């Protein structure tokens, strides 16, 4: 199968490069300035002069960006280098991860994808940009979240000290010794899936058509509600709260796009320029605030630990010490948790706790259903660890017992490699002093840099058969059967890298392992359609063709990049496997 990056497109850099050599572009802009300046001299009205002056400045800005700018030596598509608008457009259309893959295939390991932004697709860049000692901080793009929320969350803190403070609190909530606190929530909500939502599935006949994306998203939203807020949302069984999973991708897409035009946020222009997009964001903020207020109100009646407990406890500790802190000058900068901080944390935790884990679970099911040999291996392993005739049936599958299923977790890792839940680029701003990558690229302070996960996860320099679902690459060498060369696991980054690596990684693996093990142990699947209703764009009606640009790879789980991921399907029918006790 031909690599999708090699498919021609009227918008691809391969074709555009024939017409857009940057020196020629600069010359054309300079030449255009002459008649524009002549019109400026001939014009009598002040308004017209201002308009012409604006055009003149815009043309000169393009000349500067493609000739004298510190990043002018780096290759990239001309339409992205000239202005930020194309970067914003790619965020809105949901195909940004595909753009990065195609651009790197065209231009090489470094791509200038915006006037002051660089994308790197090398192993050295991963550590240089995201490593613990990297001379970088989160980009101003994260203010797309911080400004509307009027506070920053752990995952969006730009200040490194504040990030370390908030991360420490969440890390305590999710440390391995506390994972047992969440086991009942995982099991109870999975029982609702198999006992109620899919309770009518029998051995004799195939079930009604099920949209796996929708079904799994509802499940993980319920689990998120209990593990984070100790709140039963009952999304699986009631329509009341189903607006929550439907709202998340729209809100994250709006926040992500707004982050690339931060000036409009600071000037409050986003309310007028993007009214439809921002409505979803403001509704998400209201939802986050309400979840936060409800959890604080119910604190006295919740006897057990949840993720939000650690945040509330820290806020209470700070309030107890408030008088002491006022009585003397602190020896170092102090960070505090306000209601706005807790609201921001609630918003981020809803996305991280439901959206990303659901994407990983659905993509794993998708690939297993399209690679029957791998599905057979998973089921052989599951039936070996959990014999169908053993007392207890499906209840033998728990977070602790499913950890024995090495091949299942290899499938999860491989699905996250091919379809990472955050498939685009997590931008970092270079701090004073700059950074040097691979002793080759010297990047000055103030430049945004990053490594796109989707692109580097499919780079043939680091992976054998990069477009093939091959779980064996994650097993010990004695278990491998297909690998032709070693794979570079150092560039595997679905949970992030370095000091900002996801603190919820362990619980995410627990949840995904239990859900997948129980579903694959209990049911046979028949694929009706890979997609559900075609690709729904978030801000305007648009249904893409199956052969659209960058989406021609056979048996690939298709997603829209909305910072996290939006996806539909696959549509399947289910049938209970013979001899399975689901009670």
Automatic annotation (TrEMBL):
It comes from the Eukaryota. InterPro entries: Cyt_P450 (IPR001128), Cyt_P450_CS (IPR017972), Cyt_P450_E_grp-I (IPR002401), Cyt_P450_sf (IPR036396), Cytochrome_P450_monoxygenase (IPR050121). Its cofactor is heme. Keywords: Heme, Iron, Membrane, Metal-binding, Monooxygenase, Oxidoreductase, Transmembrane, Transmembrane helix. This is Cytochrome P450. GO terms for molecular function: heme binding; iron ion binding; monooxygenase activity; oxidoreductase activity, acting on paired donors, with incorporation or reduction of molecular oxygen. The chain crosses the membrane at residues 20-40, 47-66. Heme binds at residue 502. Belongs to the cytochrome P450 family. PROSITE patterns: CYTOCHROME_P450 (PS00086).
């Amino acid at each position: 199968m031909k690599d999708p990056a090699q498919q021609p497109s009227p918008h691809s850099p391969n074709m555009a490069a024939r017409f857009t050599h940057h020196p020629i572009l600069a010359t054309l802009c300079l030449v255009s300035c002459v008649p524009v300046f002549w019109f400026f001299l001939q014009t009598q009205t002040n308004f017209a002069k201002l308009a012409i002056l604006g055009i003149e400045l815009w043309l000169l800005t393009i000349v500067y960006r493609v000739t004298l700018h510190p990043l002018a030596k780096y290759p990239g598509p001309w339409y992205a280098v000239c202005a930020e608008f194309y970067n914003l457009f790619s965020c809105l259309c949901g195909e940004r991860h595909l753009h990065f893959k195609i651009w790197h295939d065209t231009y090489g390991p470094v791509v200038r994808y915006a006037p002051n932004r660089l994308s790197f697709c090398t192993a050295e860049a991963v550590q240089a940009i995201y490593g613990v000692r990297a001379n970088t901080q989160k980009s101003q793009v994260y203010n797309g979240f911080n400004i509307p929320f009027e506070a920053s969350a752990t995952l969006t803190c730009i200040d490194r000290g504040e990030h370390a403070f908030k991360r420490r609190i969440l890390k305590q909530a999710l440390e391995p010794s506390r994972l047992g606190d969440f086991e009942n929530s995982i099991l109870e909500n999975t029982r609702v899936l198999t006992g109620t939502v899919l309770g009518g599935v029998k051995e004799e006949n195939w079930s009604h058509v099920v949209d796996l994306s929708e079904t799994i998203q509802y499940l993980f939203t319920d689990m998120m509600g209990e593990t984070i807020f100790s709140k039963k949302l009952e999304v699986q069984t009631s329509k009341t709260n189903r607006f929550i999973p439907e709202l998340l991708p729209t809100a994250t897409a709006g926040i992500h796009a707004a982050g690339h035009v931060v000036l409009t946020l600071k000037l409050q222009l986003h309310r007028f320029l993007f009214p439809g997009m921002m409505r979803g964001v403001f509704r998400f903020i209201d939802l986050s605030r309400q979840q936060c207020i409800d959890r604080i109100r119910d604190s006295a009646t919740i006897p057990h630990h949840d993720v939000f407990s650690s945040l509330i406890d820290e806020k209470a500790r700070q309030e107890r010490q408030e008088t002491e802190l006022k009585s003397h000058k602190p020896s170092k900068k102090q960070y505090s948790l306000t209601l706005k901080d807790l609201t921001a944390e609630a918003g981020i935790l809803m996305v991280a706790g439901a959206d990303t884990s659901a994407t990983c679970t659905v993509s794993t099911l998708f690939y297993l259903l399209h690679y029957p040999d791998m599905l057979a291996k998973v089921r052989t392993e599951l039936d070996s660890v959990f014999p169908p005739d053993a007392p207890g049936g499906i209840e033998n599958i728990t977070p602790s017992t499913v950890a024995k299923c090495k091949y299942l977790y290899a499938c999860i890792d491989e699905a996250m490699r091919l379809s990472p839940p955050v498939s685009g680029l997590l931008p970092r701003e270079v701090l004073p002093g700059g950074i040097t990558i691979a002793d080759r690229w010297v990047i000055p302070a103030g430049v945004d840099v990053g490594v796109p996960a989707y692109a580097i996860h499919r780079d043939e320099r680091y992976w054998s058969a990069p477009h093939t679902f091959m779980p064996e690459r994650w097993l010990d060498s004695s278990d491998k059967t297909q690998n032709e060369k070693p794979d570079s696991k150092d560039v595997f980054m679905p949970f992030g890298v370095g000091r900002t690596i996801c603190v919820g990684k362990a619980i995410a693996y627990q949840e995904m392992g239990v859900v997948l093990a129980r579903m694959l142990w209990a049911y046979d699947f028949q694929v009706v359609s890979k997609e559900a209703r075609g690709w729904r764009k978030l801000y305007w009606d648009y249904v893409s063709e199956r052969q659209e640009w960058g989406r021609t790879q056979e048996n690939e789980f298709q997603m829209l990049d909305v910072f996290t991921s939006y996806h539909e399907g696959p549509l399947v029918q289910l049938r209970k496997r013979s001899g399975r006790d689901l009670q």
